[in-house]
What does this fold into?
Amino acid sequence: VAAVNTFAGGRLDRAGPRRTDERWLAERRADPASRAVLATSDGVVVHDGATPALVALTELPPEAELVLLGVDGAGAAVFAADPGPERAAALAPGAQLRGLRDVAGEAAQADAGLLAHATGLLNWHRRHRFCANCGAPTAMAEAGHVRRCPRCGAQHHPRTDPVVITLVHDGAERVLLGRQPTWPPGRYSTLAGFVEPGESLEEAVVREIGEEAAVAVTDVRYRSSQPWPFPASLMLGFEAAYAGGEAHPHDHELEDVRWVSRAELERAVAGEGPLLVPPPLAIARRLIEGWLARTA
Ligand SMILES: [Zn+2]
It folds into this structure.
């Protein structure tokens, strides 16, 4: 079984068919066993560093909107709510408000998945208060999985933006990495970009590598994916084989691109620099480690 990327691996039953069952939803909102995960625009509420603080619904301010995440293994409903950064930590005594990326490196797999799920859905609500079709305020429906426009009738669904992220290799000896100017000195990563309308994932890989590094690639192979709720991406991890061209930064998104040898990459993954690679929570790191293991 392939390793699951950070932010995947949540354990809730998402209970999709229940989202339109108003009676069941009303019962869950009144059920003392129901809990809410708290997430705000500033981060998530956790205790002991990285465990989601699940609070009873009666603890929440009455105006807090509840989004259904699903049902846990004991049959209790789990919601997400955003009580605002000022109130969030106070609702769960002893808990802290922390950035999701900071928490993710320390959290158990299923906890990181739960926090990413809550964050992604609440990010969408926060940014879609108004109808994209006519501009009127929209209202939450289907337990928080739809927003409806009362003026024009449009229905809006939670958005996930696909990003392709690709490890380019030349067989078994070298990989092509790039760096953005804002990254820590020495940090390099695999190349990534948003999928555009009217484009397959494979086409997006070929286009992005050409735009960012001026090289051609072939033999595009899917590896794994990762929810990335910053604010709403889905990272789709690929490998592709180098097929020609001299690598150089091409479209100003990257300040450098370079071929990295297997030995240098192995040292970086072991933390023995000088090259720095992304931390284990990033799919880029999983692509690098997967390639090293498979081609060893
Ligand atoms: Zn509208």
Observations:
- Residues 6 and 281 are 5 Å apart (CA to CA).
- The first strand starts at residue 35 and ends at 40.
